[in-house]
Amino acid sequence: MPELPEVEALARFLAERTAGRTVADVAVVAVSALKTFSPAPADLVGRPVLDVRRHGKWLDLTTDGPHLLAHLSRAGWVRWYDAVPATTPRPGRGPIALRLRLDDGSGFDLTEAGTRKRLAVHVVDDPAQVPLVASLGVDPLSPEFTADRLATLLAARSQQVKGLLRDQRAIAGIGNAYSDEILHAARMSPFALTTSLDADAVGRLHGIVRSVLGDALTAASGRPAAELKDAKRRGMQVHGRTGEPCPVCGDTVREVSFADRSLQYCPTCQTGGRPLADRRLSRLLR
């Protein structure tokens, strides 16, 4: 799933290439991806593109009228064309959910792999009209994300720290992969309780959130959209590396599986050498 660094890099990539251009055509290929009906996608046509921004993990193509918002979910992506293909994509014939063409012939597809279609497209007058955007928490790379703000979020209720990091209503933009990376760098169990962290641990976690995301954004910035997925994978220390040696201590990276996702961690670095129980209903070690 694209997370803050990749979505920010995509927003910058698109902003650079759409600047000064006008929307010439919008084709909704997968009707199920479109979650709004007014304004219509056709209302974007003829509108100059003012910017492409990010809200958490949402992309926001801003015109002088409606906004085109897209959440790429787990398997969505952006495919850029310097010259959009002349053929019209057919519904149900491939991964394309939406195609946008600009007045110079360039443009992009929003695509989604797999059979579980979760990519979401909204055409709205104001991003705040999308409830999931309006409810987003603090951006972890913004000045508002301070150690005190994080301490308040951690103390609000007792929950697993990984769950808080992934909660978009608390901190916007972090998903499964970067929460694994942050907790590994912080040498913290994913199942540690938020209310168990002292001031030193909170301060350390705050700094690591910013450094892990900032470093990932630096690595992603300037890359074409087609290279961002591989760049993300190469930068991972533990996420997606089950069975490989931890690059810090050499212990074997382990996994805890859930119904629709999994997390990865290093026992030596994060849990005092103890493996976590890999069953959803087991008693979890902390």
Automatic annotation (TrEMBL):
Name all FPG-type domain ranges. Answer: 237-271
Checking SMART domains in the record gives: Fapy_DNA_glyco, H2TH
Which N-terminal residues, if any, form the signal peptide? none
Q: Which UniProt keywords apply?
A: DNA damage, DNA repair, DNA-binding, Glycosidase, Hydrolase, Lyase, Metal-binding, Multifunctional enzyme, Zinc, Zinc-finger
Q: Name one GO molecular function term.
A: zinc ion binding
Report if keyword Hydrolase is assigned.
Answer: yes
Which transformation does this protein catalyse, written as a reaction?
A: 2'-deoxyribonucleotide-(2'-deoxyribose 5'-phosphate)-2'-deoxyribonucleotide-DNA = a 3'-end 2'-deoxyribonucleotide-(2,3-dehydro-2,3-deoxyribose 5'-phosphate)-DNA + a 5'-end 5'-phospho-2'-deoxyribonucleoside-DNA + H(+); Hydrolysis of DNA containing ring-opened 7-methylguanine residues, releasing 2,6-diamino-4-hydroxy-5-(N-methyl)formamidopyrimidine
Q: Which Gene3D superfamilies match?
A: 1.10.8.50, MutM-like, N-terminal
| InterPro entries, alphabetized | DNA_glyclase_Znf_dom_DNA_BS, FPG_cat, FPG_N, H2TH_FPG, Ribosomal_uS13-like_H2TH, Znf_DNA_glyclase/AP_lyase, Znf_FPG/IleRS
Show the CDD domains listed in the entry: BaFpgNei_N_1
- The segment(s) forming the Formamidopyrimidine-DNA glycosylase catalytic domain are 2-119
A biological process (GO) of this protein is: base-excision repair
Pfam families tied to this protein: Fapy_DNA_glyco, H2TH, zf-FPG_IleRS
Please give the superkingdom of this protein's source: Bacteria
Q: Which family does it belong to?
A: Belongs to the FPG family.
Q: What is this protein called?
A: DNA lyase
